[in-house]
């Protein structure tokens, strides 16, 4: 399929995804949690909440740590004081830039191509079912995870250690060299299994988003317009629609898949090799030490935190697509 300028849909999807991912890097890339132990090191565990959101989510390691506003303010002060001031909040920007842009570009390329294939099979985009969107999104997510997991491992380790912490990665390339030297190729794929399970987050998010787009675009129209051959009888969506629909789909997916994000985060941190033997061990330890609540710590603040990046991503993506097509 091609746009009005003869550009292929794959090209448009890739450029739109790459641009949307790059736009996320205007946001601070570091969030910390936990108790201050010593200058230059604050106990915390972070993770990119699924490559589809490229967010940084807070998970508390210390059983007595809190998520109160006062604690958050203290964490900000400690990071600024012990880790280099304002620049510390942008630690990990290089892997952020590479990871976000590459992940979104690959994801939308795969997702768009799969939807086009399903469209040809079904005969119309309007004929695609929720399961079709779920399958296309899940497959695209799995492929993207396989290709980009090394980037997220380095990013998470950079963000989970302050620049003054002994052994902390000073740059993206330093992280690559260190992991290859100390852990070999398998080190780049720590947390991959939970990531693959976590593809369900993106699958649910995009299933909901695309279905909501279809419903919204056919609001107040004859139900018969939803059939094959009636794609032109739809209203154009605007930025307010994109904001509302992306928010609803993100909230839905975030609530449904949050526990896996906690486990993946803990498996990808700098000291994970010393703490956990694998995903099963991490699950058992979280359950034993913190109970069911341990899998949902920080859910509320995280849902509020991820929405701005979701808005940026979808607004940029949709508007770039409109520009090219």
UniProtKB/TrEMBL annotation:
<keyword id="KW-0813">Transport</keyword>
<dbReference type="GO" id="GO:0055085">
    <property type="term" value="P:transmembrane transport"/>
</dbReference>
<keyword id="KW-1133">Transmembrane helix</keyword>
<comment type="similarity">
    <text>Belongs to the mitochondrial carrier (TC 2.A.29) family.</text>
</comment>
<protein>
    <recommendedName>
        <fullName>Mitochondrial thiamine pyrophosphate carrier 1</fullName>
    </recommendedName>
</protein>
<dbReference type="Pfam" id="PF00153">
    <property type="entry name" value="Mito_carr"/>
</dbReference>
<dbReference type="GO" id="GO:0005743">
    <property type="term" value="C:mitochondrial inner membrane"/>
</dbReference>
<keyword id="KW-0496">Mitochondrion</keyword>
<dbReference type="GO" id="GO:0006862">
    <property type="term" value="P:nucleotide transport"/>
</dbReference>
<keyword id="KW-0999">Mitochondrion inner membrane</keyword>
<keyword id="KW-0472">Membrane</keyword>
<feature type="repeat" description="Solcar">
    <location>
        <begin position="241"/>
        <end position="323"/>
    </location>
</feature>
<feature type="repeat" description="Solcar">
    <location>
        <begin position="128"/>
        <end position="215"/>
    </location>
</feature>
<dbReference type="InterPro" id="IPR023395">
    <property type="entry name" value="MCP_dom_sf"/>
</dbReference>
<keyword id="KW-0812">Transmembrane</keyword>
<dbReference type="InterPro" id="IPR018108">
    <property type="entry name" value="MCP_transmembrane"/>
</dbReference>
<keyword id="KW-0677">Repeat</keyword>
<dbReference type="InterPro" id="IPR044712">
    <property type="entry name" value="SLC25A32-like"/>
</dbReference>
């Amino acid at each position: 399929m091609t746009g009005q300028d003869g550009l292929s849909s794959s090209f448009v999807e890739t450029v739109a995804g790459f641009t949307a991912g790059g736009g996320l890097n205007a946001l601070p890339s570091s969030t910390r949690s936990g108790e201050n132990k010593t200058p230059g090191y604050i106990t915390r565990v972070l993770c990119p909440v699924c490559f589809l959101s490229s967010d940084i989510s807070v998970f508390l390691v210390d059983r007595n740590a809190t998520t109160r506003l006062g604690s958050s303010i203290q964490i900000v002060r400690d990071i600024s004081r012990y880790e280099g001031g304002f620049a510390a909040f942008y630690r990990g920007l290089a892997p952020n830039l590479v990871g976000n842009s590459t992940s979104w570009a690959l994801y939308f390329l795969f997702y768009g191509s799969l939807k086009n294939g399903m469209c040809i099979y079904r005969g119309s985009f309007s004929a695609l079912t929720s399961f079709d969107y779920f399958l296309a999104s899940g497959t695209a997510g799995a492929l993207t995870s396989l290709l980009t997991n090394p980037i997220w491992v380095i990013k998470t380790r950079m963000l989970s250690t302050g620049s003054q912490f002994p052994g902390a990665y000073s740059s993206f390339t330093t992280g690559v060299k260190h992991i290859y030297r100390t852990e070999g190729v398998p080190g780049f794929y720590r947390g991959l299994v939970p990531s693959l399970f976590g593809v369900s987050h993106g699958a649910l998010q995009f299933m909901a988003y695309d279905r909501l787009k279809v419903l919204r675009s056919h609001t107040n129209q004859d139900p018969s317009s939803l059939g094959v051959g009636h794609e032109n009888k739809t209203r154009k969506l605007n930025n307010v629609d994109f904001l509302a629909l992306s928010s609803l789909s993100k909230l839905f997916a975030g609530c449904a898949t949050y526990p896996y994000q906690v486990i993946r985060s803990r498996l990808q941190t700098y000291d994970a090799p010393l703490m956990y033997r694998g995903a099963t061990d991490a699950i058992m330890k979280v359950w034993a030490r913190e109970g069911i609540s341990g899998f949902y710590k920080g859910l509320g603040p995280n849902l509020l935190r991820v929405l701005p990046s979701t808005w940026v991503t979808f607004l940029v993506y949709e508007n770039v697509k409109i520009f090219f097509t």
